[in-house]
Amino acid sequence: xxxxxxxxxxxxxxxxxxxxxxxxxxxxxxxxxxxxxxxxxxxxxxxxxxxxxxxxxxxxxxxxxxxxxxxxxxxxxxxxxxxxxxxxxxxxxxxxxxxxxxxxxxxxxxxxxxxxxxxxxxxxxxxxxxxxxxxxxxxxxxxxxxxxxxxxxxxxxxxxxxxxxxxxx
Length: 169
Known about the structure:
The chain is mainly alpha-helical. The protein has helices at 3-22, 40-44, 51-69, 74-94, 96-99, 110-133, 139-168. The two termini are 22 Å apart. Keywords: Membrane, Transmembrane, Transmembrane helix.
């Protein structure tokens, strides 16, 4: 990565943690709907970047949210997992574009972007809520929390991507 990309990723990391911790964690609709914008860092990390560094940074990202939220590591585990599985999701979302390292989420086709973002959000939320609830007796709560928080997170992330895309043009 170039120096400019490193600075952009550092700023993105810090801004997303602060937004999540001080603003978005205070939004709790109906007791189980909470947006998780901080995973935008993982979504926007360059596909040509170092995979090991991404997993480490994702763990730190989740750990930062866990420290402020006192949630016992569920965010760190979910973030590390989605960073680990991200190449697979990129491959089935973008296909041949990923193979040639020409994936830019800001310039991707709407269907590819939808599949990529939705997949990462669902995986993240399912793992996070499964670790948080940790009981098969509450499987309905797990699915409901995953679905509704996922929808809210998806809307927030897609809105952010539209804003980013307008700034790029």
